[in-house]
């Protein structure tokens, strides 16, 4: 049985993806606000179209995984850094941990001492981000959530040796399965950490081979589709990966990807979550257990200093785009995004058709 879509919400999914990414590019190019004419996007806070471009993910990639202090560390230490950062997902908390340890790694992970450090930090403000709502079970016997999380990470890289399990992984699904065997790591958090681990140079699996929708994505799926038919949420997400070029073309939306990188399953999963949020205002008659968007948009004054996993091969394009935008803007006093899009060499490269997998691996996913 084929899924049945709500055409207006399906179109909003793709329109949101294009418009939110356009805002990202305008901010990257230092174009002045306002960055678009969609009143919902101008008023409320939404994640970037590409997960790796969000500020927390950018910090993780640049300052946790590929930081100078981490470049010579063995894989297990890098994995530990990634897991520990993601549990808190807060830059100030990570900076405090780095400062207290002289560099987070297995040999410096003193659960008691770092627990005291975080206790002090917590007395002055939040030590967790609002990005993920984590349960606070006392799985390791502590009342404080942060002490249980520190003990969890110590356990992961001690007796149960998550690092060795990751080294034996043959797929992103294997990475996920290794993570969710531990207490306090549910399916959604396990998937997010699996993607984070895969940003490192020590793992390199295809992001489109596995996905795990979170609660927000499920709500979005139920708004995009009136009936999902016989398809699982995972199949529906992967189908969005496969049909992206056709859908952007159908709606006449300009979308060149993340400096040439197309949407991956993790991005399409996130877009369902953001579509759920967007629909609360755009389609208020579509009821769910969430009825409003909690956060309004407040642009950060911190410049976007983009850095992506080097193995993706897009950092040179990012640097070239940044230099060309700023050089031409200084010379011609033109709007930076216009220059970004019209710069001949880079623009031609970025406007190559986005290639998605059309092999037998994805041929099984019927379109709708």
Q: Assembly state here?
A: single chain
Average pLDDT score: 88
Major sheet: 2 strands, antiparallel
Radius of gyration: 21 Å
Structural classification = mainly alpha
Strand adjacency order, main sheet: 1-2
Low-confidence spans: 342-353, 356-367
Query: Helical residue percent?
Result: 40-55%
Order of helices and strands: EHHHHHHHHHHHEHHHHHH
* Percentage of β-strand residues: under 5%
By DSSP (H or I, 4+ residues per run), the number of helices equals: 17
Write the layout of secondary structure elements.
Elements: E1 4-5, H1 7-28, H2 39-43, H3 55-65, H4 75-88, H5 91-101, H6 111-122, H7 145-156, H8 162-167, H9 172-180, H10 187-198, H11 215-224, E2 225-227, H12 233-250, H13 265-282, H14 315-332, H15 336-342, H16 344-350, H17 360-363
Antiparallel strand pairs: 1-2
Helix pairs in contact: 1-13, 4-7, 4-10, 5-6, 6-7, 9-10, 11-13, 12-13, 14-15
